[in-house]
Amino acid sequence: DWKSPQSGATPLVMRLKTLLALTAIAASLSACATVDRLDAGGDVHDLLVAIRDNDRATFDAHVDRRALKGQIEARLMEEARQRAGQSNSAMALAAIAAGPLADAAGEALIRPATFRAAANYYGYTPDRPIPGRVAIAGALRPTGDGRVCAARKDGPCLLTFSREGDRWRLSGFDASAANLRAK
Description:
The protein has seven helices and four strands. 61% of the residues lie in helices and 13% in strands. By secondary structure, the protein is α+β, with helices and mostly antiparallel strands. Strand 1 and strand 2 form a beta hairpin. It has helices at 11-53, 56-61, 65-84, 88-109, 112-121, 133-139, 175-178; strands at residues 140-142, 147-151, 157-164, 167-173. It has a four-stranded antiparallel sheet with strand order 1-2-3-4.
């Protein structure tokens, strides 16, 4: 018998209904990711324009300095850990110095001129117009933790963005991927 005694529906109809429900759920989840990327695309566009124009105020509004300085501090600690080996006194000194060094490095490096190298890496050179929000959104990759990242094709995530209130802000970077340098 093709009909289920409880529902009166055939197994084929039940499978189709289940498949349609799962498809609708998947579509709604991917739509959320698309909306996030589209929202982020507008803020990334604004950041790229600020970098190109050396607009410090707009740049600062689209950058999470605390997160970036934390990343610099973690990298300093990791390098100190590798160099110190088993020396507890060297690690203690590194821990004391990491915060102030990260603050100084953050002030020196977290500025539009430094991130111009990242923009150039993505092809946003001064002689070319910056693409619109939709094109940038298409290039952003969800990272699975509520953040999005900018990566070239199948390459590494160079810049990571997190939503903070009504704005997406630069919250992480991989300087080694593009050899970022202060200029």
